[in-house]
Each structure stands twice: as C-alpha cells, then as structure tokens.
Design a protein that fits this description.
The protein is mainly β. Helix content is 4%, strand content 54%. It has one helix spanning 66-73; strands at residues 7-11, 17-24, 28-34, 37-43, 51-57, 61-62, 85-94, 100-109, 112-127, 133-144, 163-177. The longest helix has 8 residues, at 66-73. The model has no long low-confidence stretch (mean pLDDT 92).
Length: 182
C-alpha cells in the first residue's frame, strides 16, 4: 500500500490542471480549463482523514473560444463579477487503498454550495531534481450545473438543449510538501 508523507502541502498550479467538459448540442463535448487556481492540503500518511481546500478564479475560464469564455463569465453562467471564486472544502477523504480514494466535500459555484464526491487516484510521491517532495493526484466528479444556478440554455430545433446539465470536473494536480514540513 502506497502512503504519502503526513503534513502540510501546497498545490503547484504550474504542474496541475482544473478541467471540465459538458455535452454541447447533444452530440459533442466542449472542454475547458481554469487557468488560475490554488489549494492546500493537510495529508495524513494514508490519506484517510486528510483535509483539502481549493479556490478557482471564475474569470480564468478558458475554452479556446473568447466569445464563449465571455459568455461563461457573464450572469448567464458563473457571474464572475459577483461570484469571482469557485471553492472546494473537503469534508472527508476516505477509502484509500494505496491507489484510489473518495474525496467528499462542499463545492461552491455562484454562491451555491452542494456536496460532491470526487473519485480519486493517487499517482505517487517523489522528490524532484530540485529537492521538492511532490505528490500527484487525479480526481473527477459529475455535477448538475443547474443545481448551482447555471441554468442558461437554448432549445434545439430537433429537440433537446444546447448545453447539457451534466458537467464532468477533472483535476490532475501536483502538490509540494511545505519545506518546514519536509
């Protein structure tokens, strides 16, 4: 069973991605990322009982289409002017078997907080060439965007809607152990 060094860790945004995808027009997926985010964690040796917090800047959304990005920042979606951050606070890290785990917590988007469950995978821990202790994780969850107040949509002529309610959130993140903890 793989373990992680207990202590305080900081998310390394330059080696991490916060991504999402949503079905568009019922036939394909639009994918996007958030370019600005931060996080901290206090890990236990076996991850169970660890604490994770993260903040994402809503106006940093990037889908490789500036018009769509502006629409996502608007009141129709994230309303970034009034709700500049998306936040996650863990309630429980559980069921760690050395590789996979459950990350349960509260996700806040647009001022609405809902419980979510991320299914995660521990990529391992290593010391990089610069002497930093690193740990890698992947995690994903599906949410209903409408439950968070992101309700804008357009009906399609053939039936259905332009934007699916279900959004997949995927995190591929690297944390570094705080030096005083190393």
């Amino acid at each position: 069973m793989a373990n992680i060094s207990a202590g305080k860790w900081t998310l390394d945004a330059s080696h991490s991605e916060a991504m999402f995808s949503v079905r568009h027009a019922g036939i394909s997926r639009v994918r996007g990322t958030f370019e600005e985010f931060s996080g901290t964690a206090t890990f236990t040796g076996d991850l169970n009982g660890s604490v994770v917090e993260a903040t994402v800047q809503a106006d940093s959304v990037d889908t490789r289409n500036e018009g769509r990005d502006e629409h996502l920042r608007s009141e129709d979606f994230f309303d970034a002017a009034n709700h500049p951050q998306l936040k996650f606070e863990s309630l429980e890290v559980a069921n760690f078997d050395g590789e996979s785990f459950d990350l349960n917590g509260n996700l806040t988007i647009r001022g609405v907080t809902k419980a979510v469950n991320f299914k995660g995978e521990f990529g391992g821990q290593t010391v990089d060439p610069f002497g930093l202790t690193r740990a890698g994780f992947e995690a994903s969850t599906d949410i209903s965007r409408e439950e968070f107040g992101l309700t804008w949509n357009a009906a399609l002529e053939a039936g259905g809607f332009l934007v699916s309610d279900k959004v997949r959130i995927t995190l591929d993140v690297s944390f570094t152990k705080d030096e005083e903890e190393a």
